[in-house]
Amino acid sequence: MSESVASPATAVDEDARLESLGYRPQLNRVLGLFSNFSVAFTYLSPMVGIYSLFVLGLGTGGPAYLWLTLIPVIGMLFVALVFGELASHYPVAGALYQYSKFSVGPKYGWFVGWFYGIALLVTVASVDTGVVPYVCSFFNEVTKSSLDPTNHLTILIITIVLLAIQTALNITGAKVMGRVAQFGVYIEIIGTLGIAVILAISGFHHGFGWLFSTQGVQNASSNPLGLDFGGNWWFGAALVAVLAPVYIFYGFESAGDIAEETQEAGRQVPRSMRLALIWGGIASLVLTAALLLAMPNAKDSVAQTVKGGVPFLLGGLPTGVQDFLLLVIIFAFFSCGTSVQGAGSRLAFSYARDGALPASNWVARVHPRFKTPINALLAGAVVSALFVLLVFPSPSKDISFGFITYPANVNGLVALVSFGVSGIYLSFLLTVIGAIVARVKGWIPEGRFQLGRWGWVVTIIAAVYLGLMFINVVLPSGSTSPRAYFNLDWITLVVMAVITAVGGLYFLVARPDRGVASHLHDSLEPSGAERE
After folding, report:
1. DSSP category for residue 439
2. Where along the chain do its domains lie?
3. 368-378, pLDDT tens digit by residue?
4. Contact call for residues 367 and 170 (beta carbons, < 8 A)
5. E strands of 408-488, at which residues?
6. Distance of CA 165 to the CA centre of its chain
7. CB-based contacts of 432: which residues, under 8 Å, 6+ apart?
8. Do residues 387 and 413 make contact, with C-beta atoms less than 8 angstroms apart?
9. Nearest partner of 80 among 352, 275, 313, judged by Cα
C-alpha cells in the first residue's frame, strides 16, 4: 500500500468542504492513505489484543473460540460502512462527536463526544500500563535487574515515561504520528503473521480439526479456569468467549479523527476504516490459529496453555527470538498508545473548537510550527497519568454497597478500564442511532463514499450488532460469573453511571451545547443550523 499524493486542486476542495462546515483549516493535511490506515490499524492492534486476551478466549471457549472472531469482524464491518459514509460527508476531526452533532443535534453530539473522549483517555492508560510486564521482562533479561511489574510505583514510572515520549512524538506533527503508526504496522506483521510462520516452521502439534474442538471447556469438570457453563457451548461458553475478540475490534474509527490531516479524506478515510478491520481480522485469525496449533499434544493441553499463556507456547523458540519478540510486543503497545493518544487529541481539539470543554480556547490552540493541537495533547497526557494513579487504591477484601460488591485486590484503574470497551461500544451505538435519526429526517449523503440503496439495511444491521454486543459487554451477571473475567459485574455499569453523572453535571452547569449549537453550519444542508 503506497501513500497517495493529493493534487493542489484536491487540497483546495478539501479545505473548501471544511469551510462549508464552518471551520477554518488549521491542521496540516499531510497524511496519505497508508498513514491514515496505519493509525487506525495500530489503534485496533490485533497483536496487542491477542497477546492480552488469548488465554481468556481459550479458557472460556476452547480452541473453537477462534471462529468467534468472525462475529465482531463482520459486525464491525457494517459499523465501519456507516461510519465511512458519515466520515465522507463530514470529513472533520472529532469523528463520532461531529457525526452525532450534525445527525441529531448539539446536546446529543456533546454526550457522544463525552463518552468517546473518556473511553479514549482510559484506553491510553490501559495500553500503556498493559505493556509494563513486557518492559520489565526485557530489562530484567538484558540488565539482570529485578523490576517487579506488579509494583505500583514501577507501573506509574514506566507509564509516565511512555506517555511523555508518545506526547512528544505526537506534538512534533501529524507526519511523525503517521511514521510511528506505519512502523507499527510492520511490527504488527512481524508479531502476527511472522510469529505464525515461525511457529509453523517449528512444527504444529495438532491438525486443522483441533481448531473446531472445544476440549470440554463448557463443563465445569474440564474447564481450566474452573468455570461452569452447564455443558452448553453455544449459549454459554461462546457468549463469553466472543468477548475476547470483541475487545480487539474497534479503533478503526480513529481514521476519521484525523480526517483534517488526511489528503482526500472523503475517499481515503472510509477505505482506511474497512482495510483496518479486514486486515486486522486476517492477522488475528492467522496468529490465533498458529498459537492454538502450537499447543502441546497432551491430555491437559488447554490447562497447560491457560496457565502458561502465550510465553509458554513461545518458550521453545531460541532465546534471541524470544528477546526480539519482547521488543516487538513493546513497540506494538507503544504504537497503539501513540495512535490512540493522537486520535483522542483530535477529538479534544474538535470538541474545544466548538466551545464544548472547560478552557476551550486553550485546548483548541494549534502550534504555529507543528500544526498540532499541542494543548489537547498535553491535557490528555495529564488526565491519562492521573488515571494511572488509580492503580494504587486496591481493597484487601470485598467491599459491599447494597447489592453491589467491589471485589478484593482489584485496583481502581482496573475498574475504570472496564469502561474502556463499554464506553466505546456505547458511543458507537449512539452514533449509529444518530445515523438512523438523520435518515428518518431525510438526510442525503453527499460524500465520495455512499451506501446508496443499501444504506438503511447496513445501518440497521450495525445498530442491532452494537446493541446486542453492548449488552453482552456490560451485563452484570455476578462476581462469580464467567463474564467477570471481562467485566466487573455491576462495577462496570457503576463506572459508566459515574461518568454519565459527571458529564451530566458539567453539562447542566456549563451548557456546552450552546457553543456546539453555533457550529452546526453545513452549506449542503442549509437547515442544519436550526437543529436542536
Report:
1. H
2. 44-352+359-389+399-515
3. 999 999 999 99
4. no
5. none
6. 20
7. 79, 82, 459, 462, 463, 466
8. yes
9. 275
DSSP state of 404: E
- pLDDT tens digit string along 92-113? 999 999 999 999 999 999 999 9
Query: How far is Cα 42 from Cα 48, in angstroms, rounded to an integer?
Result: 9
Q: What is the dihedral of CA 270, 467, 74, 438, to 10 degrees?
A: -30
Question: pTM score > 0.90 for this model?
Answer: yes
Measured N-to-C along each axis, helices 265-293 and 8-20 cross at an angle, to the nearest 10 degrees, of 100
Report the distance separating Cα 532 and Cα 530, nearest Å. Answer: 7
144 backbone φψ class: left, alpha, beta (φ>0; ψ -120 to 50): left
CA distance 31 to 43: 16
Q: What is the Cα–Cα distance from 270 to 450, expressed in whole angstroms? A: 10
DSSP letter string over 16-85?
HHHHHTT----S---B-HHHHHHHHHHHH-HHHHHHHHHHHHHHHH-GGGGGGGHHHHHHHHHHHHHHHH
Phi, psi (deg, nearest 5) at residue 405: -120, 125
What is the three-class DSSP state of 527?
Answer: helix
Residues 6+ apart with CB under 8 A from 522: 20, 21, 22, 90, 102, 528
Q: How far is CA 412 from CA 10, 118, 150, 393, 491, in A?
A: 48, 15, 14, 6, 11
CATH code for the domain defined by 44-352+359-389+399-515: 1.20.1740.10
